[in-house]
Fold Phage shock protein A.
Amino acid sequence: MFKFFKRMKTIVSSELNSMLDKAEDPVKMLDQFLREMGEEIQEVEAAVAKQIANEKILKRKFEDAEAMVVKRQEQAEKAVNAGEDELARRALAEKKEYENQVTLLQSSYEQAKTDSQVLKSKLDEMKKEYQEMNLKKDSLKARAEAAKTRTKINRSMSSIGGDESRRGFERMEEKVLRFEAEAETSEDLAVQSRTLDDEFRKLDSDVEDELAELKKAMGKE
């Protein structure tokens, strides 16, 4: 019974990495182990209660036998005082039987008492270990979740920097450069397509503007 509990404790304490390697969900496994530990404790509690009840029964029988030894002794003395030797013999004979029972019951009671103390000590130890595992569970669950999150982030970062993503980015960059080159080319072509008359009209327009500004400055408008 106690070996099973020890095995559960060992798994929870030292084999979290093994569970991760086997692709088992450590959070669910920890909950399962603790449920099994709790069930094991309940079974041990029932066994301890049964042992304590047995101890109490033996104690009562032992004390009853002791009381009968005293009673038969007193009855034998009373019979002797009354001159009833035969009655005294019968009382002493039963006293002897009860004395034998006292010897046997005392041994059984003391052994049962020792067994009860051992079982109660083991049960207390199991409960203490269970409480420790229950507290440790929260820490292990947090560590497992953190590890899963880090793995997810690392995988995402790896995919972002992968060859496929990089090639896609480079293709978009090339398109932007091509659009810019096409825009510059169209501007050059627009300039080249202007006629000589267009150039002179622009020049005449600039001269007229400059003349108007000069007249305005000289007050000759």
Summary: Residues 166-218 form one domain. The chain has a mean pLDDT of 79. The chain has two domains: 2-160, 166-218. Residues 8 and 36 are 8 Å apart (CA to CA).
